[in-house]
Design a protein that fits this description.
binds pyridoxal-5'-phosphate; about 400 residues; Aspartate Aminotransferase, domain 2; alpha/beta; 7-stranded mixed beta sheet; globular; 3-stranded antiparallel beta sheet
Length: about 400
C-alpha cells in the first residue's frame, strides 16, 4: 500500500475540493431579478412571501415565516411556543450552539440531554429524566440530517403537554416514516445558512400549521406590524436565492444519498470504521455522512487520523463539543448580568452546567464521529478518493499513532 501523504507519500487528491453551495442559472436570474426590481426589503417586494409559500407547500404545511437566520427561526419558534423567562427547554447536548442559544435569548434555560446511538438525536429516556414542572418545550435536532425518534418524543410531549420544536437546520427534505421532518412537531425551524442542504448564504424559516403562532411570529419579526417586536427580517435577495434552489432540493439530497452509497461501496470493510446506522423508517438528508471511528481498534487518536486525512487532500473539519462545554454555558453569564441562568425569575435557582452528564454525546464529540462531506457538487470520483485515503491510512495505523 502506498505511503500516506503525512508520512511523505503522494496525496490521494491535489486539486481543491468541489465548492458548496452550488449555483445554476436560476440563482443568477433570481439575483438579477431582485436587483432590477429595486425592492431589496421584503416590505417592498414579493420574493420572501413567495419563498414562504413554496417552502410551506413543499412540506404540505399552510404557513412559512422567513427570518434572517436559523438562530432567529428557532427563537421565533420558541417565542411562538410561549417560551419565556424561567422556562426550561430540553435540548440535545450534541448539536450546534444555536439550538440552545436561541432559548437563552428568550430568557429560558436550556437543559441538556444525552444522545441515543442510532441516530445521535436526543435520547427520549434522558428527556423523561430531565422534565420538571418548569419544562415548556423540547427542541429536537435532526443532527447531520439523520431524523431522530419523533414517535417517542411526540408521545412524551403529549403526555407532559410540551411543545416540540424541530431544528431541521441539517435536515431539509429528510423523512421520518415518509413524513418530511419539520412537520411532525408543533413548529419546524430551518437554517438557510451557506453550508446547509438548502442554502441562501444566510437566512432561516419556520413552518407550522398554527395560525396564531404564524401571526405572532410575523408581528415580532417586523416591529412595524404591531409596534411590538424586533427586526428579524431577511432580504429579498436571500429569499429569491433559496426559492430558486428549492425545486432542486430533492434531487440534491438524492445525489448526497448516491454519494453515500458510492463511498460505502468503495470503502468496503475497514476495521474500526462503521457508518452511523440511523433509525429504521427514516431517510437521512446527509448534511454530513457520519462514520464512526473506533479509536481502540485504530490505536491512533482521532485528531491524528483527521490530520492525516486532510494531508491526503480530503476535507474534514473540527467537531462539535457538547453544549455544556461552550463558554456561553460554562460561564453562564451571556450578557454580563447572569440572566437568565441566575435570574430571580428562574425558579429552579442558578444553573451550574458543570454537573451535566451526557456520556454518549461526549464520546460522539470527543472521539467517535467523523463528519464526511457528501455534498452534491462532489461525486463518485471524490467518494472513491475518500475511500482510498481511509484505506491507505488503515494500512499504516502503527506509523500514524504519533503524527
Ligand atoms: C443544528 C443547527 N441549528 C441552528 C443553526 C443556526 O443557523 P444559522 O447559522 O442560520 O443561524 C445551525 C447552524 O448554522 C445548526 O447547525
Amino acid at each position: 500500500m502506498k505511503l500516506p501523504a503525512i508520512l511523505g507519500g503522494e496525496p490521494v487528491r491535489r486539486e481543491p475540493w468541489p465548492k458548496w453551495p452550488h449555483y445554476g442559472p436560476e440563482v443568477m436570474e433570481a439575483i438579477q431579478r431582485v436587483a432590477e426590481s429595486h425592492a431589496y426589503h421584503p416590505m417592498f417586494g414579493g420574493e420572501t412571501e413567495a419563498l414562504e409559500q413554496a417552502f410551506a407547500a413543499y412540506h404540505g404545511m399552510p404557513h412559512g415565516v422567513a427570518v434572517a437566520s436559523g438562530t432567529l427561526a428557532l427563537q421565533a419558534a420558541m417565542a411562538a411556543a410561549g417560551v419565556g423567562c424561567g422556562d426550561e427547554i430540553i435540548v440535545p447536548a450534541y448539536t450546534y450552539a444555536a439550538s440552545a442559544g436561541a432559548a437563552v435569548d428568550q430568557n429560558a434555560i436550556p437543559v441538556f440531554v444525552d444522545s441515543e446511538s442510532l441516530s445521535q438525536g436526543l435520547d427520549p429516556e434522558d428527556v423523561l429524566r430531565k422534565i420538571t414542572p418548569r419544562t415548556k418545550a423540547i427542541v429536537v435536532v435532526h443532527v447531520n440530517g439523520y431524523p431522530c425518534d419523533m414517535d417517542r418524543v411526540m408521545a412524551i410531549a403529549d403526555e407532559h403537554k410540551l411543545s416540540v420544536i424541530e431544528d431541521c437546520s441539517h435536515a431539509h427534505g429528510a423523512l421520518h416514516r415518509d413524513r418530511k421532518v419539520g412537520t411532525i412537531g408543533h413548529l419546524g425551524a430551518f437554517s438557510l445558512q451557506h453550508k446547509k442542504n438548502l442554502s441562501a448564504g444566510i437566512g432561516g424559516i419556520v413552518i407550522t400549521d398554527d395560525e396564531t403562532m404564524t401571526e405572532n411570529m410575523r408581528a415580532w419579526r417586523n416591529y412595524l406590524l404591531k409596534s411590538v417586536g424586533h427586526n428579524w427580517q431577511t432580504s429579498e435577495f436571500h429569499s429569491a436565492i433559496a426559492h430558486a434552489q428549492l425545486p432542486f432540493l430533492d434531487a440534491m439530497n438524492e445525489k448526497r444519498r448516491a454519494n453515500v452509497a458510492a463511498l460505502l461501496a468503495a470503502l468496503g470493510e475497514v476495521d474500526g470504521i462503521a457508518p452511523l446506522p440511523g433509525l429504521s423508517n427514516t431517510v437521512p438528508s446527509y448534511y454530513n455522512l457520519i462514520l464512526q471511528y473506533d479509536v481502540e481498534s485504530w490505536g491512533v487518536p482521532r485528531a491524528s487520523f483527521v490530520k492525516a486525512l486532510n494531508a491526503e487532500g480530503i476535507p474534514m473539519n473540527m467537531f462539535y463539543r457538547p453544549l455544556q462545554r461552550w463558554p456561553i454555558f460554562t460561564e453562564a453569564n451571556m450578557y454580563g448580568r447572569g440572566c437568565p441562568f441566575s435570574c430571580p425569575l428562574n425558579e429552579g435557582g442558578p444553573v451550574d452546567y458543570s454537573t451535566v452528564s451526557t456520556p454518549v454525546a461526549d464520546a460522539i464529540c470527543d472521539h467517535i464521529n467523523l463528519e464526511v462531506k457528501v455534498q452534491p457538487t462532489s461525486g463518485e470520483r471524490e467518494m472513491q478518493q475518500i475511500a482510498d485515503a481511509i484505506r491507505k491510512l488503515s494500512a499504516h495505523r502503527s506509523a500514524l499513532a504519533s503524527v
